[in-house]
C-alpha cells in the first residue's frame, strides 16, 4: 500500500519514520531501504534515527534512480545490473556515430555544426543529445515508443528519431521505457516476482519524482508498503492555488476562468510551483494520507511568515500587528564583495553566540549558490583567524578540481605538454612538494633554480626546431635546450670567459654540490619533454588509462596529505575508461578530450563533509534546506540565484512543458521556500549589493526581492520605513570603518585588528611607538673588524644593514616574475651591463662579429635584425667611450692596493683593485645612482688614506652624466674616521641617512637655498609623487620609521655630514 505523510517539519517526519522502523521486518537480517534525495539528507536522517532509536544500522540509503532500477530488477527477469542507456554511455556511442557520415537530409543541421571537425565540440554535442534522450526516456516515454514504431513523436524530431533508432539497435538492451511497459504486462499476467520485494520501503523528503517513477511506485505498492514522507509547506489542499503571474496569464486568456482561480499566499504560490505539481501527481494515486503539521506560534517575524505559508493566508489576511523593533529573526545584509560578506557573517555569528550561550556552531547552516567563488574567502576569514574569535566550521560541496592542488597541477601538466613551455609556468610546476620531491628537489632549491633560468635568459620553447613549429625562425636562443646546455657547460668548464664552445656561451654559475640540483632540474625538464611524445597522439581508451597512470607515477611522490588527491586522479580516469568500455566505444581520442573528461569528472561536488561538525558551509542544492536553528544564505546576488539553464535549440521538451517536468529555476525557487520553512530561529541573508568600484547599488536575487516585497506588503514596523528597509543593513566598504566601533551603533565588529585600524584612522596624530625604544648595546669585538665592502654595503642602506646583520630581520621581497616573452628590447640594466662588456671588448680589440655572437649566445639581445640594430647602436657609443678612456688613461697599472686603517679600535681592511699611478678610472653606461656615488666616495677616501706616494689619489668615472672627478682630499683621514664612527653608531640604532633624499637635501643646501626649500627637495625623493620612485617605499625604512616623518634635524645633520664633503669634492664635466 502507498502511504503518504505530510508535515511542514522534517523533525516530525523523522519521528513518524522512526515509529515505523520500530516495527521489525519479517526477516531481521534484511536491511531497511530508505530513499533520499541526496547523501547529505541520508546523513542527517541517520543521525536523527540514531537519536530517536538509539542506533541506525543495517540501513541502505539509496537515491531515487538507483532505487527504481533496483526495484525493476527484483520484479522482472533479465534486467541488467546497470542501465545501458545512461547519458554518459550514450554520449560515447553518439560521439563515435557523429564522427561517421550522416547522409540523410534531416541531418543537415548537425552536418553544418560538425564541419569544423573539432573532436571536443563533437563530444560536447553528443553529450547534449544524450541528455535530451535521457529526459525523453523519463518524462516523454510516449515519444520513445513512437520512435520505436518509426512514427513521428514531435514536430522537428527527424534526426533525433533516426539517431535514437540506431542507438537502440546498437545497444541491444532494454531501456527504462521498455522495462516500464514490461512491468505493466507482467503485472497483468501475474508474472511479477513480488516475492523478491522487501516488506517495506520508505522514501524520505523527496522534492520531485517523474510521473514514470510514481507509476512504478504505485504498481509496487500492491505487494509492499511504500511510505512517502513529504515536506509540505502548507496544510490543506493547495494544488489549485496559482501565483499572481499565473493568474494574470489566465485572466488574459479568459476572464471568466480567472474568476474561479485562488491565489493564496503569494510566497507559497510564487515559490512553490514545483511542489504543487509534485503533490498533484502524487494525490492522483489516492494514497493513504497522514498529516502531522505543526503551526508555529506567531512570536517572531520569521514564525509569522511560516504560519502564513502553512495556513496559506492571503497577504491581506496576515496579521498587521506591529512588529518588535528588536526582532532579529530575519536579517538582510548588503556588502561590497564576497570577502566583506564573509567578514560580516563572522561578526554576526560571534554576536549570536554571545547573546545565546546555548547556540552551538553545529546549529548553523550557511548556504551559497556559488561555492567555488566563496570557498577561498571562507577559508581566509574562518580558517586562518589568529584571533581568539575563531569559529569551527566544515566546508562541503567543493569539487576536486577547485580544492585539490594536485588535481590542478596534473591538469596543468597535461595542458602544457607540446605547447610553448613558458618559463614562468614550467618553474611554477616545481613549487608543490608532491612534484619537486619526485625529482629529488627541496623547496630551498627553487630559489636557486629561479636565479639560474633567469640568468641564462630562458624564455620559452623546447629548442630551435620547436620554435619553428610556431612559424618562427629556427634559433635556439632563449630556449630551454640552450639555457640548460649553458649551465651544464659552465659547470664542466668553470671560468668567467666569454669564449664560445660550439656556439654556446658557458654560464659558470653552478658550483660544487649545486650540480645535483642542476641534474634534478634537467631530469624534470627531460621528463616534461618526454611527456609530449607520450600524450600528443590519439589513442584508445585503455591506452589512455595506462598513460595517465604513468604520468602520475613519473611526476608525483604523494605523502599522507596528498595521497587521496592522487588517488582521485586514478579513480577519475578509471571511471572514464569504464564508461567508454560499457558503451562499447572502439575509437581513439585526443589529449584534449581526455583533459575535458577529467575536468568534468573532477568538477563534481563532493558532499562527504556535510554535517561534519562546526558551522556547516555548503552549496544551495535541492532539499539541502535541513532544519537548523540559524540558516544563512550568502551570495544571493542577481542572476546567480535562481539558476537558469537555457535549453539547447534541439530540445523537443523546451516548448512543451508538462506537469512534473524538472526545471532548474523551479528547483531553486522551491529550495528558497523550503529554506523559509526549515529555519527555526533566525534567517540571515546577504548579497553583494554595492559595486566595489563606485558604490553604485546592485540588485539582489529576485527571490530576495520577492521576500522583501512580501514583507512590505504584509507587515509594518514604523511609519517612516518599510519593514524590508528596517531589516536591511548596508555595510561599509572597509571592515575597519569607525562605525563598527562606536557606541550605540547598529554596526559592530569583534575584530581587534580592525578596531586598531579604525582607531588609527580616527586619531592620526597618535604616533606609533619607535621601532627601537632605546639603542642596542655595543656589538662584540668581532664587529670592530670591518671589511671595505661591508662598510660600503652599510652606507647603501644603513637601516637594512642593522636589521639584517644585527637583528636577523630579513624582509622577503616578492621574487621577480620570470619573463616568458622573447626580448624585444634591452631593459635599462641589461643595456648597462651589455655596454660595459662592449667597452671592455673594444678595449681588447675584439671584432664586432665576435662580440655579437657572444651576446646572442648570452640571450639578452632581441632576435633578428632588431637585435643587431640595438647592438650596433651600443657598439658605436662603446667605441666613443673606449676612445675617451684611452685618452684619459695615462698612468701605469699597479698591483691591488691593500687597505688597513685603524680608528678608535675600529679596523678597516680590504683591497682596492684596478689602480693606476694616476688613480682610478671607471665607467658605466647608465647614470650614476646615489648609492653607487656614495660607494665611489668611500673608495676614494680609502685611496687617499692608503695610496703610496707614487700614486695620484684621483677617482674619475665616465657615465651618461659626464666625467665625474674626485680630486685628492687632504682631510681624507678625518672624513673616513667620521664615516667609521657613524657606521658604529648605526650598528646600535637606525640612523636617518637615506642616499637619495640625503643627497637631494645637501645639494639644495650647498646652493644656498632656504632650509624649507632643501627639505622640500628631500621630501620629493622620500615620498615620491610626480618625482618618481619613493625612497620611503623601501620595506626596511617603513619598518624602522613607521610614521615616515624622519626628515628631522638629525637627518639634516647626518646628511650634511656624509654628503657635504662628497658633493663639495665632486667635479662633473
Written overview of the protein:
The protein is an alpha/beta fold and 1069 residues long. The chain folds into seven domains: 2-80 and 183-291, Rossmann fold, CATH 3.40.50; 87-172, Arc Repressor Mutant, subunit A (Orthogonal Bundle), CATH 1.10.10.160; 301-397 and 608-733, P-loop containing nucleotide triphosphate hydrolases (Rossmann fold); 398-417 and 536-606, PCRA, domain 4 (Orthogonal Bundle); 418-534, PCRA, domain 4; 828-888, Arc Repressor Mutant, subunit A; 992-1069, no CATH class. Helices cover 48% and strands 10% of the residues. Helix 19 (405-416) packs across helix 27, helix 33 packs across helix 34 (798-806) and helix 40 packs antiparallel against helix 41 (1011-1023). It is elongated. Mean pLDDT is 86; it is low at 257-261.
| Domains (count) | 7
Structural class: alpha/beta
CATH C-level label of the largest domain: Alpha Beta
CATH superfamily of the largest domain: P-loop containing nucleotide triphosphate hydrolases
Per CATH, the architecture of the largest domain is 3-Layer(aba) Sandwich
Give the overall shape, derived from the CA principal axes.
Answer: elongated
> pLDDT below 50 for ≥5 consecutive residues: which ranges?
257-261
CATH topology tier name of the largest domain = Rossmann fold
Rg over CA atoms, rounded to whole Å, is 39 Å
Largest sheet report: 7 strands, parallel
* Separation, N- and C-terminal Cα atoms: 108 Å
- Beta percentage is 5-15%
Strand order of the largest sheet: 9-12-8-13-14-7-15
Question: What is the typical, i.e. mean, pLDDT?
Answer: 86
Number of distinct beta strands: 23
**Count of runs of 4 or more consecutive helical residues:** 43
